[in-house]
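User: Now give one protein:

AI:
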Amino acid sequence: MVPRDEPAIPEAIPHDVGDGALRCLQDLENRVRWLSSWTIHHANHIREHVDGLKVGGHQASCASAVTLMTALYFHTLRPQDRVAVKPHASPVFHAIQYLMGHQSRENLENFRAKGGAQSYPSRTKDADDVDFSTGSVGLGPAMTAFSSIVQDYLRRHHDDLRREEPRRMIAVVGDAEMDEGNMYEALWEGWKHDLRNCWWIIDYNRQSLDGVVTDHLFRLIDRLFRTTGWRVLNLKYGKRMMAAFKRPGGKALKKWINDCPNDLYSALTFQGGAAWREHLMGDLADDSAAAALIGECTDDDLQALMTNLGGHCLETVLDAFATAAKDDRPTCFIAYTVKGWGLPLQGHKDNHAGIMTPDQMAGYQAGLGIADGDEWEPFAGMKERAEALRAFVDAVPFNRPPESRQMSAAHIDIPDTLPVPDQDTLSTQEAFGRIMYDLAGSRTDLADRIVTT
């Protein structure tokens, strides 16, 4: 499932989050997962339907990205940074904005309905603070790369921008988006123009609409990014896993995880702790230390251990973000995750468009201690923590009113007509060149803002 020959995060920088803040982030992670799941459930099972058709949504795709986006929005992002959210994680984005006070309950209740929160993040149709419209998979990451290149151009041409700290352009990327050809065009273009200040965070859950991905796809992704000048950080194991690896029998457990095919790992994740135990004890029966390590775990503990991948460990994610933030080098994070993490459908082979049944949702809700009628309350089920969580969210650097993050452009006068080249016969290319030449010599605000490509 994961490489045996990959190093840990190179030059890892420990995160700067204290125990109190880490607990707040963990609570917010749970809230975001609940709200994103409930938003989709409400649209399909509670909201009135004229035709009775399934509204849809991607609960599993949301759940795999929850940790990554919680760490980003509630800790790492600065006010000037911009993010392209993978299309299928739109409900996660809306849930985060809702907790920050920039999204309304009414819009969430109308998810995927006219005027409500959009199925994919949209700058023109969503009411919350969307940075990049990402309805077509693969376009969001490319937009962040080209936005960073444009930022560099503007900073070279305008002193006031050069004095400001540059924005970091970030994409949360579904691993299946790596099938899109424009992703690779963008990588090569970035290499040619010395791309800076760009992160692509790959939600590597190894499942897509088409099935479980090839076992060693990560190797090709890793090599491609390194070839085009990117730093690659592999977030393979969470802190719980890494602690287990240091114990007697841990080396054998790690090797088993590394060798396990993606489809089997997903299936065991869905089946749970008893299934993990049966396979592990069968395969590691000759290693008494490994058998003892596994035997110490209850079924629930074993399930928690085996799904503690790097992309679901806040501390591992925060360490990686802190490492990348030390400079402006473009960085790819390959974050191992579980599709549907924490939900009844986690790891199921058909969970891409699957949604929880009412009974499953009721069980999930009861487990969180959320009373009927409180489903939309920001901190339902954790009332004793509500005050601390609200204060934490209010202090988040990225949590600024949307209008404070928007840039306004000055009005530029545009002439009614353009000069016509004075020549009887000439090609359209030459005519265009002369018009642009005359404009460039006009020393107007318009001339300063024209870039030919």
About this structure: The longest strand covers residues 198-204.
